[in-house]
Amino acid sequence: MSEWHVRSGSSETNPVALARDHEVLEYELDGHAFVFACEIVPNEWAGKGIAVMMHLAELVEAPRAGTPTGPPSDSLLKERVSVHDLAAAFEEDELPEEVDLATIVRCRHRAHWLFASAADMIQSSDS
Q1: DSSP string for 83-98
Q2: Is pLDDT of 35 > 80?
Q3: What is the pLDDT of residue 80?
Q4: CA 38 to CA 22: how far, in whole Å?
Q5: How many whole angstroms separate alpha carbon 12 and alpha carbon 59?
Q6: Could you tell me if 43 and 49 are in contact, meaning their C-beta atoms sit under 8 angstroms apart?
Q7: What's the longest Cα–Cα distance across the chain?
Q8: Strand partners, 126
Q9: Given pLDDT bands bounded at 50, 70 and 90, which one contains residue 13?
C-alpha cells in the first residue's frame, strides 16, 4: 500500500490548528501532488457558530512552456481528485483556544478518512 509523503509544510494534520494558522500543506501519493487546506466556515448545520472544513485536492501541473499545442493527451483529460469533509463544528463564533481530546481524535479520524478516500480514488483511476 502506498503512503502519503509531505512535500511542503509541517506534518501537522490537526485540522483545527491548520485552519487557525491558515496553513496549507502539500502531500504526494504515487507521484500525484495534493494540497491539504482547512478553513473556518459558518456552522450551517447548527445555524450558529463556526465549523472547520477540510479540503484535499490534487494539483495539476501547468503545461510546460515550449510544448506543442494540439489535442489534450489522455493524462490531461483525467479528472482531478478532490475530497472535502467537515472536521469539527463549534457553537461559538471563534475557534476555542484549547480543543478537547475528543474533538482532536474525531478531527484526526476524519482527516484520515479524507486521505484514504483520495488514495482510493487515485488507485482506481490509475488501474
Answers
A1: EEEEEEEESSSS--SS
A2: yes
A3: 87
A4: 7
A5: 20
A6: yes
A7: 55
A8: none
A9: confident
Q: Is the separation of the CB atoms in 92 and 52 below 8 Å?
A: no
- Whole-number mean pLDDT of the chain? 85
Reported as a pLDDT band with limits 50, 70 and 90, residue 61 is: low
The span from the CA of 89 to the CA of 76, in Å, is 37
Alpha-carbon distance 8 to 117, whole Å? 21
82-90 β-sheet, strand order: 5-8, 24-29, 32-42, 50-58, 82-90
If we measure between CA atoms, which residue out of 15, 53, 8 comes closest to residue 34? 8
Global pTM value: 0.80
**Residue position matching grid coordinates 482510493:** 120
